[in-house]
Amino acid sequence: MIKTVHVSHVGRVRSVNEDSAWIRHLEQGYILGIVADGMGGHLAGDTASRLAVETLAADLATLESGLSAHSLTAALSDAILHANEVIFQTAARDEKYHNMGTTVVAVLLNDASGIIGHIGDSRAYVISKGTVRQLTEDHTLVNELFKNGQISKEERENHPRRNVLTRALGTDAEVKVDIDSITLGKGDVLLLCSDGLSNLVTDEQISKVVGAADNPLEERADRLLHLALLAGGDDNITVALFELPDDTVSLSEKGCDA
């Protein structure tokens, strides 16, 4: 049984939390998790991220059970594209929402396997056996510069325009969704997060905290959030964790002598 938890914090600088997060174990047996980081200022940013979560949750709540990976991919992609339409049209109808948008990273799990859909710079990582692997690719200006060899990895991490998005949900009538697949092994943890975490907490810190399987999942999520706050907390911070527990229990833990 996959364990889940999510936490969110406004941070130390912002007055409004424009992040939205949502996790549910659906009746059909799937697990749906969503993290969205809104932009556009007060009202607009939090509205965009909320609309993204609400649209995906509503569209995917009625999925049939036992769908193939291909069908789950299509369903998640269609839901994200629908959210793009909802946000774009809402902004077009009301001046106070002009140019609002949001990132989105969402996972639809069927047991240990699943599909990840994402737009923007909110990320998905898998933490496995002490290693951290980023599953998503940031849709940002500096990542494009890095891929084209115009800046180094270190320059990418510290670039003053590192938060400029090249793709977002709701800012254009049409958008492309990146899709990745994932299969969790025993003891693996999937992390979804906004850039309020990934900009301030290193892979090494993520590995150390999330990999501490003896600690409750809730405690590990809170610890990640706390590390981002300690590092400055200059943005909203959202963390969502999905763990496939390692069922291996030692003889001593069973109360037997080895």
From TrEMBL:
The record's CDD domains line, in alphabetical order, gives: PP2Cc
Residues annotated as domain PPM-type phosphatase: 4-244
Q: Which InterPro entries match?
A: PP2C (IPR015655), PPM-type-like_dom_sf (IPR036457), PPM-type_phosphatase-like_dom (IPR001932)
SMART domains (alphabetical): PP2C_SIG, PP2Cc
SUPFAM superfamilies on file: PP2C-like
Top-rank taxon: Bacteria
Q: Which PANTHER family match?
A: PROTEIN PHOSPHATASE 2C, PROTEIN PHOSPHATASE PHPP
Protein name, UniProt field:
Serine/threonine protein phosphatase PrpC
- Give the organism, scientific name: Paenibacillus brasilensis
Q: Which lineage do the record's taxonomy fields give for this organism?
A: Bacteria, Bacillati, Bacillota, Bacilli, Bacillales
